[in-house]
């Protein structure tokens, strides 16, 4: 979009917030908005949960959003920075099912959860965890967050995400992140050490747990990634531009709440606008519409000077050509949109209903290819290789030249999964397809996995915290 078109989207979003408003289900969140100048109700009714926003209030609030910030890990070398031209990739998050070639599709469980964490730890293409790589449904919801967060913090030393599913869960995981880093509460306030995804309930609604998440994370100066889940034709207008207007309005509402709670609290603008298959109503990913909305979302994030989150997603049911091309398109939309966080970077399948071991390895290759592509070329005497060209001359080859040998290891991207052999040698080796080779690699990588070191005192403190909270019953649930 041109600068004028970006501004038009911004002004249209402010009109949605002021004239239509957002349903805010959390009383404390409504109180923050009202105290800052918002009003309750619509023009015709006194709806007690509908918040209408003063545009100047929104503009003033988002001006305090930081342009970049760090996410600290218990291993300092794993700390990442969001913002500027940094790109960080997470593993898949939140699917209810897992799969591999050997075991097929199955309900999420703790064994698969732990193995996917191990695989994410082992793959250098993944820098942060995106919550649970699969839901460990065999652990009761009242204590699931305790066991899952413990595994994330001990099986891995990469930064973590936690779900905003109520105040108690928020406080539990914040405390566990603090213990794992071995820091005091003041240090945690200065150094964001955990992030959460805040999904608006599109269209135009902020529900209770999401509002609570924004409030708690802002109070503790931790990172909220405000991500409307807007599907054009279903929960948003069918046009890409209309869907992005709604996405932008909802993102601004969440970002505003965080800044009203604590000016300068770290927030990220999340774009997750795609479209639905109008014949079935099912979500579609990796489409031209998804790519366009990813680019537009990035432009809006830069308009506000905040880091941007996008995703690597697909709607395929098998690790096949559809999975590949939809992921390539999704990832390319995210990268060209300037995403600082590519969520669901590796392992997402079936529109988010399944985490695939093989797909995680294949996506890691894809991420490495993108990372290699993003490295700038250096044009100097050494890279122009005039001496090597002169030495070889017409009709020779460069395999054995010193220029090639000096750069052999880093000359070209070496994929894990791709099989760059001629047909005859490939067929003699049993003609391994990408999913079969990825399955073999998964087994190899999991066998090679070594748990990262953790101080015994820290591990004991984490275990004691989990045991105490489990003994207390964890978090009350309705089921």
Descriptive report:
This protein has 479 residues and is an alpha/beta fold. The chain has two domains: 3-62, no CATH class; 69-374, TIM Barrel (Alpha-Beta Barrel), CATH 3.20.20. The protein contains 18 helices and 19 strands. The protein has helices spanning 3-20, 27-35, 55-62, 110-122, 144-155, 167-181, 185-190, 208-219, 240-261, 288-304, 321-336, 357-374, 381-384, 386-392, 402-406, 423-428, 434-448, 456-471, and strands spanning 22-24, 39-40, 50-52, 69-71, 80-82, 88-91, 97-100, 104-107, 195-198, 205-206, 223-226, 231-232, 267-270, 274-276, 283-284, 308-311, 341-346, 348-349, 354-356. The chain has a six-stranded parallel β-sheet.
Blueprint of the fold:
Layout: H1 3-20, E1 22-24, H2 27-35, E2 39-40, E3 50-52, H3 55-62, E4 69-71, E5 80-82, E6 88-91, E7 97-100, E8 104-107, H4 110-122, H5 144-155, H6 167-181, H7 185-190, E9 195-198, E10 205-206, H8 208-219, E11 223-226, E12 231-232, H9 240-261, E13 267-270, E14 274-276, E15 283-284, H10 288-304, E16 308-311, H11 321-336, E17 341-346, E18 348-349, E19 354-356, H12 357-374, H13 381-384, H14 386-392, H15 402-406, H16 423-428, H17 434-448, H18 456-471
Parallel strand pairs: 1-10, 6-17, 7-19, 9-11, 11-13, 12-14, 13-16, 16-17
Antiparallel strand pairs: 1-3, 2-3, 4-5, 7-8, 14-15, 18-19
Helix pairs in contact: 1-9, 1-10, 3-9, 4-5, 4-17, 5-6, 5-18, 6-18, 8-9, 9-10, 10-11, 11-12, 12-17
Radius of gyration: 24 Å
Overall 3D shape: globular
- CATH-wise, what's the superfamily of the largest domain? Trimethylamine methyltransferase-like
Helix content: 40-55%
Strand residue percentage: 5-15%
């Amino acid at each position: 979009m041109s600068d004028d078109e970006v501004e038009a989207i911004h002004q249209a979003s402010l009109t949605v917030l002021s004239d239509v408003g957002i349903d805010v289900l959390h009383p404390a969140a409504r109180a923050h908005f009202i105290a800052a100048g918002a009003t309750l109700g619509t023009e015709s009714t006194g709806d007690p949960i509908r918040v209408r926003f003063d545009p100047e209030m929104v503009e003033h609030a988002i001006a305090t959003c930081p342009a970049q910030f760090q996410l600290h890990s218990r291993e300092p070398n794993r700390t990442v920075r969001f913002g500027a031209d940094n790109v960080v990739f997470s593993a898949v998050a939140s699917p209810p099912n897992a799969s591999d070639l050997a075991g097929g599709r199955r309900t999420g469980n703790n064994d698969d959860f732990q193995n996917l964490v191990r695989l994410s730890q082992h793959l250098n293409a993944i820098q942060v965890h995106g919550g649970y790589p699969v839901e460990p449904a065999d652990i009761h919801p009242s204590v699931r967050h305790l066991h899952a967060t413990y595994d994330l913090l001990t099986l891995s030393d990469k930064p973590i995400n936690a779900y905003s599913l109520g105040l108690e869960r928020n406080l539990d995981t914040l405390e566990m992140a603090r213990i794992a880093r071995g820091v005091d509460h003041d240090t945690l306030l200065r150094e964001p050490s955990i992030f959460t995804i805040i999904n608006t309930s599109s269209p135009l609604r902020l529900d209770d747990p999401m509002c609570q998440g924004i409030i708690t994370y802002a109070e503790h100066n931790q990172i909220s990634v405000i991500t409307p889940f807007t599907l054009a034709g279903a929960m948003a207008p069918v046009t890409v531009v209309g869907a992005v207007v709604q996405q932008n309005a909802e993102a601004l509402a969440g970002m505003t709440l965080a800044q009203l709670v604590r000016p300068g609290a770290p927030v990220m603008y999340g774009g997750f606008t795609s479209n639905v298959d109008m014949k079935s109503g099912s979500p579609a990913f990796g489409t031209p519409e998804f790519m366009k909305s990813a680019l537009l979302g990035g432009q809006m994030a830069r308009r506000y000077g905040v880091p941007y989150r996008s995703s690597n997603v697909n709607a395929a049911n098998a690790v096949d050509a559809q999975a590949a091309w939809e992921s390539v398109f999704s990832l390319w939309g995210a990268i060209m949109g300037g995403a600082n966080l590519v969520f669901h970077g590796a392992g997402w399948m079936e529109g988010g209903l399944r985490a695939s071991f093989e797909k995680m390895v294949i996506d890691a290759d894809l991420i490495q290819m993108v990372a290699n592509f993003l490295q700038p070329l250096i044009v100097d005497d050494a890279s122009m290789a005039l001496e090597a060209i002169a030495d070889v001359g017409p009709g020779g080859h460069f395999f054995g030249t010193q220029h090639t040998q000096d750069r052999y290891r880093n000359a070209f991207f070496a994929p894990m999964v791709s099989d760059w052999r001629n047909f005859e040698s490939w067929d003699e080796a049993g003609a391994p397809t990408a999913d079969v080779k990825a399955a073999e690699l998964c087994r190899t990588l999991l066998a090679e996995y070594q748990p990262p070191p953790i101080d015994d005192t820290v591990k004991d403190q984490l275990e004691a915290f989990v045991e105490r909270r489990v003994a207390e019953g964890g978090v009350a649930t309705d089921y």
